[in-house]
Amino acid sequence: MTHAGRMAVTGCSLRTPLGDDAAAVLQRLLAGERAAAPNAHFDASTYTCRLAATIPGAPRPTKHRKFVKRMGLFGMEVGAEALTRAGAPAKGARLGLFCGYGGLRAHWDDLMPVLERQTGDARATGAWAQGFSLLHPFWMLFHLSNNAHALLSIDVGGKGDGTTTAGSNAGAQALRAASIALAVGSVDAALVFAYDSLVEPETLLSLGMSGAATSAATAEAVIAPYDEGAAGIVPGEAAAAVVLERPDDAGDRAISFISAAATADGAEGFPSPRALASLAANLAAGDTIVDGAALASPERDTAERAALADVLGPSAALLALTASTGHLGGATAVVQAILLAEALRAGALPPIAGLDRPSAGPLRPLVRAEETRARSALALSAGMPGLAGALRVEVP
Amino acid sequence: MAGRRAVITGVGAVSAFGVGYDALANGLAAGRSAIGPIRNFDARTFPTRVAGEVPIEKTSASLLEKHRGVLLHVGEAAAWEHSGLLRDRKVCFGLIAAAEAWRHARCGTAERKAALSIGLGLEQAFLEDLATALDGDEIRVGAGDLAGPEGVRFRSRVDLTAEKIRGVLGLSGRVAVHVSACAAGGTAVAHAASQIERGAADVVLCGASDSMVNPLGIGGMSRLGAPSPRAEPSACRPFDRRRDGLVVGEGAAMFVVEEESRARARGADLLAVIAGAATTQDAYRATAPRPDGSRALAAMERAVRRANLVPSDIGYVNAHGTGTPLNDMAEAKAIHALFGDVPTSSIKGAVGHLMAAAGAIELAACLLAFTRDLLPGTAHFEEPDPECPIHVIGPQPLKQRVEYVLSNSFGFGGQNVSVVLGRPR
C-alpha cells in the first residue's frame, strides 16, 4: 500500500451531476444541494433503487461517436479540456495518458436486435442469421475498455506511457500509475482521466438487490451517509481529468498537489474500514479533513469513522461529497482531486448534504458548511470487490 | 530500491494446446498448430468458423471439474457452479493458470502477501441471462427477471477473474486490473516487474486471461472484419505474404514474479529475469497501427534501454504478429530498424490471438528460449513478404541459445508494450 509521491496538478476538468464547472459545483456543494432525482435514463419504476444522480445534457457532437459510448465521450471531453487548461505541458513522447475505467455495461440497446430473435442460449444453429449479422460493425470497438483512451491519445498526440486500469477504484489507480511514470521520469506530463456510471440497468439491479443502494422514492427521502438512519447510496456518474506534472516542472502553474494510493483487501463487498484507514495513514501528514467513503450504511459508516479517528484524530472534519453528487464509482478519486482542491482554495468546506442526525462517534460530520484555513485534505473512495482508493490533496 | 530485480519463478498456462504449461511448451516445441473448428458453440453460419479454442468439452463447469485438483479451495466450485460463474471460460482459464503458476513456484503461506496484476478483456455477456430480461420489444430488468443474488453484472464484471484468483489463492496484496485491449497481458507483467523493482511488492502473481470464443465475441470480431475470411486451420499466417487476418484464440498465462534475492533465498527455480519493459502509444488511428512502426520501435528501444542492454544483445523477438496485413508490416519495419536480422516469430498461427491474454501467453512461450534453448516457430509461414523484411522463423522452432528475448504486445488504438526477458544466471 505504498503511494507514488506528490505531484502537481496543472489542469483539470470534470462532468458531474452538479455541473461541469468546479467553482460552480462547489457553490452547489456548499449550499447542500443533492443531485439525486428519479432516474431519467430509463424506466426504473420496478427497481428497488429508483433514484440516480446523472450528468445533465449530452456529450458534444463528435466523430468519435462511431467508436465510443456516452460516458467515454465525456471522458474524452474532460481529458482534452484538462490538457488545454494546463497550458503547455510536455507533448508527444513525453506526454503519458492514464485512464481509469469503471467497468463495461451490457449496452442493451445494441444487443436488442441480436437477442430478440435468438432462441435458447444462442448455441443453436443459425445464430448468425438470427441476429449476430445485425451487430453494428463497430460493436466490438464500442465495447473495448480502452477505446476512449486510444482515441484521446490520438486527439492530444500523447505518445508516451499509457495504460487503462479498471475497477471501482480505477481513478485512484490511474492517478497512482501516472505519478509513478512521472517519478521514474518516463514522461514529463501525465493526462489522467476517469469515467464511470453506476446508472445502468444491471448495476442498479445488483446494487438494489444487495441493499447497497437507497430504496427512497424521492431525493428528499434519501438519508445521508453518517446519519444514524443511513440506508444506501445514490448511484451516480461522472467523468474527470487532471494533468499531473512533477512539482519542480510545474512551478507556479501548479494549482494543487496530490498523492494517490489504491488497494484491494479481498472482500467481496465493500472494503474493510481497516483497509481504508491503512490507505489514509499511508498518505496522511497532519491532515484534519477527510472526504469519507460515505457508504451510507450505519455499520460501515461507524466502523469507518472509528478506523479513521485512529489516523486523523477524533475531531477531524468529515465530508461526504458523494452525498451531493451521488456515488461515482471509478471516477470518484479524480473528482475528489478537483473538488477538494476547489474547496481548500475557497477556504470553505461543504456540508454532508441531507445530514440531519449525525450518528454518534468520532470525527465531525459536517452538518453545515464551514470555513477552513487548512491547505490539505484526505479523500477516500470504496467499491466492490474490496477496492479502495485514497488521495491527499494540497493547495499552494 | 536500487538493485532489485524481478524474476519469474512459476508459470501456468491454458491454451489451444490444452491445459497446463507443458501442453503449450510441447506443442510449440513440436512445431504444431492447435487451430481448429469452433466447438464451443455452433459457428457454422458465422463468417469465422475456426479458432484457437481450448480443447475442453462444452461447459466451463466441466473444465473446472476436470481440473479440480489444481484449485486449493475446491469446495467453492459447487457454489460457483450454482451462480453460473463457471460458464465464464476466462474466469476458469485464469484460475487454472494461476493455480498452476502458484504451485509451480512452490509458493506457500509466506507468499500470500503477493500482489495481483492481471490483464483482462471484454466482459462476458451471457445470452441466456440477457434473454431472461427481454419482454417483447422491451428490456425489463427487475428483481424477478434474474435468479440468484449474482445478477448479470456480477457474472460479467471486468475484474471478476482477478477477484476469484485472489480468493482462491488467498492473496492479500494490491490488485491491479489492466484493460489495455491486446496490450493488457504484457502490461500486467510489466507492471508486476515495476512493483518489484520499486519495492512496492516482493511477490506478484501476474498474467492475463481471455476468451472471446463465444457468439458475441466471434460475432463482434466478424462484424469488425478483423478475422481471416478463410475458415481453415491455416487461416492465420503471420508475416506471410498471403496473410489476410487473425484467428481468435482463448486461454490464459500466469506467472509468479518475485524479487530475485528473495527467490534465491527460498530456493525457487528461476525461469527468467524480467530485465526491462516499456509502453508507448501510437496516437495515430483507432483501427490501424502507425504505418512506419515508429512508436512500436520506441517501446522496444526503451525496453532494451531499461534492461541496460543494446539491441544486439537481443537474440529473439516474439512479435505481436497478428497476421493482419497492416499490423505485421508496421511491426516488421520497427523490428528491422532496431534489431536488423534477429530471429523473429509469432505464435498466433499456432494458438490464435488471445486478445487481452496474448502478451501473457507469448511471454510464456518465450520461456522456451531459456528452458529448452528453443525459439518458437511461426505456424503457416511459407512465403516471405518483401514488406516484412525480417528474419521470420518458419513453422518449426529454431534450436538456438540466446541470452535475452523481447516480446511485443500491441493493443487497439496503438497501445504498445515491449518486455525484455533474460536468461537467469
TrEMBL record, chain A:
The keyword Cell membrane does not apply. It comes from the Bacteria. Keywords: Acyltransferase, Transferase. Residues 290-355 form the Beta-ketoacyl synthase C-terminal domain. Residues 6-250 form the Beta-ketoacyl synthase-like N-terminal domain. InterPro entries: Beta-ketoacyl_synthase, Ketoacyl_synth_C, Ketoacyl_synth_N, Thiolase-like. The keyword S-adenosyl-L-methionine does not apply. Pfam families: ketoacyl-synt, Ketoacyl-synt_C. Gene3D superfamilies: 3.40.47.10. Belongs to the thiolase-like superfamily. Beta-ketoacyl-ACP synthases family. This is Beta-ketoacyl synthase N-terminal-like domain-containing protein. It comes from Polyangium mundeleinium.
UniProtKB/TrEMBL annotation, chain B:
SMART domains: PKS_KS. The keyword Transferase applies. Keywords: Transferase. Residues 1-423 form the Ketosynthase family 3 (KS3) domain. InterPro entries: Beta-ketoacyl_synthase, Ketoacyl_synth_C, Ketoacyl_synth_N, PKS_Beta-ketoAc_synthase_dom, Thiolase-like. Pfam families: ketoacyl-synt, Ketoacyl-synt_C. The keyword Disulfide bond does not apply. Belongs to the thiolase-like superfamily. Beta-ketoacyl-ACP synthases family. PANTHER family: 3-OXOACYL-[ACYL-CARRIER-PROTEIN] SYNTHASE, MITOCHONDRIAL, POLYKETIDE SYNTHASE-RELATED. This is Beta-ketoacyl-[acyl-carrier-protein] synthase family protein.
